[in-house]
Amino acid sequence: MKKRGGRLLKKSLHAVINAAFTVIILTGAAIAGLRVCGIQLYSVLTGSMEPELPVGSICLIDRRYSFSELIPGDIITFRLSDDSVVTHRAVRIIGDTVYTRGDANNAEDSSPVTEEGYIGKCILSLPKTGYIVRFIRSRIGLPLLAALIVFLIVADRCLGRA
After folding, report:
1. What is the pLDDT of residues 33-54, one digit of tens each?
2. What is d(CA 4, CA 1) in angstroms, rounded to the nearest whole number?
């Protein structure tokens, strides 16, 4: 009876390890695939675009979307002169200048967007997933993820021999 329970535990652990490893690999492959297709991920850090983009969301930004194709209402990501990155809604377009505003803000942004600062258009947002991405990009997140992958590989090998 003891042997049967041990075998069940071993199979369960093996399944959990394989599932975790599969999720990590598929997530990495999906992110790499998106980048190849011109899509970048940006985390929403402030509430200026709530409720459309809650804090902690991830925005998928299509870099291939042309600046000249923008229309009022599009949510765009752009770089300010101080190198900070902002995602706000285009409220009006005059010539080669886009005026933006955060949905939760009362006034337009003080700096309009030109093609030079334009990064891309938000094509999708994923609530809460930004917290995970921010953690992985942190000083401790990436080493911890690497350690988890090594642990999963070692644990899988050990379970295979036991």
Report:
1. 878 888 999 999 999 999 999 9
2. 5
Hey, how many other C-beta atoms are within 10 angstroms of the C-beta on 103?
A: 15
Confidence of residue 75 (pLDDT cuts 50, 70, 90): very high
Q: What is the pLDDT of residue 160?
A: 67
User: In this structure, what are the phi and psi dihedrals at residue 109, rounded to the nearest 5 degrees?
Assistant: -65, 145
Domains of the chain, by residue range, sit at 37-127, 136-162
Compute the distance between CA of residue 13 and CA of residue 10 in angstroms, rounded to an integer. Answer: 5
Bridge-based pairing of strands 58-62 and 75-79 is unpaired
Q: Which helix (H) or strand (E) holds 125?
A: strand 118-126
CATH no. of 37-127: 2.10.109.10
* Residue 42 main-chain phi, psi, to 5 deg: -130, 140
DSSP calls for 32-64: HHHHHTTEEEEE--SSTTTTTS-TT-EEEEETT
Give the Cα separation of 88 and 102 in Å (integer): 5
pLDDT of residue 63: 94
